[in-house]
């Protein structure tokens, strides 16, 4: 039996490889790991603790907020405020920036505290997503403008999926590391220190209920995925969970393509650039995959606002390259 390595041990070992490292980013990642354990515990007993259902308010996007959304948001902000490393948080559940007590902290954290909220009450996978940036100047007054950085400037990103097991994946730009929560130990245990996405997969993932609102090129690509061709393992399998973290996690492990396009219904797409698309693009690229909005690399988009949306096509290198052929046709 291989030695068990906890998330905390792994982070410390990685930090020790860099002489002069201050340990602050390592502490920040451990803080997020702690919050994920607390959220996982509540998710697993949500039906008996009166934390299911709607809270009664709406978030900045006009979406009804669920009780577990607010709980996850509070736990992550509380964890990040504990060590004075993070100066501000931008969350799906808050309209503007959330200034933390340690305003001189060097890190900015974007997060989707509970991705896939529509799945909560029916016990289907949900997740948390985070993205970490470094401040330009610790002495400047905190502002939204300072937080508007392209994804290429992320120093770390990751996600947690609360499903049949609770898994956490993160990257600091040196590969993707995957952990599973052992509830008996209360620790995230290392699964894989260098996850690689298959170069090709025969799975496509999209909300096909919106098919009639799609661009003609995307419709043609989906029909291509459904055609019979043994050489390319078609027809592809269609899989869609409705939680981006969970759908991208499956894509990371099994290959294929996940798509959330723009449409006549959502002209700019529906997924958020800064705390959904950028962090998951960082993960997938570090694993050897690609992520595009159909015209450019997701992580090269210069954001104009904290909560802006973007279309996204993300997954295995060969699948994305094939998809681009249909996009160019149009």
Tell me what the structure shows.
This protein has helices at 7-16, 24-44, 67-81, 144-147, 216-226, 244-254, 273-286, 317-329, and strands at 54-58, 64-66, 86-91, 98-99, 107-115, 126-134, 154-162, 166-171, 176-182, 187-192, 203-205, 237-238, 257-260, 290-292, 312-315. It has 2 domains: 7-192, Fructose-1,6-Bisphosphatase, Chain A, domain 1, CATH 3.30.540.10; 203-329, D-Maltodextrin-Binding Protein, domain 2. The radius of gyration is 19 Å and the shape is globular. A hairpin with a 6-residue loop joins β3 and β4. It is an alpha+beta fold. The strands form 3 sheets. An 8-stranded mixed beta sheet has the order 4-3-5-6-7-8-9-10, sandwiched between helices. The protein has a 5-stranded mixed beta sheet with strand order 12-11-13-15-14.
How many H/I helical runs? Answer: 8
User: Over the alpha carbons, how many angstroms does the gyration radius reach?
Assistant: 19 Å
Count the beta strands. Answer: 15
The portion of residues assigned to helices is 25-40%
Termini separation: 54 Å
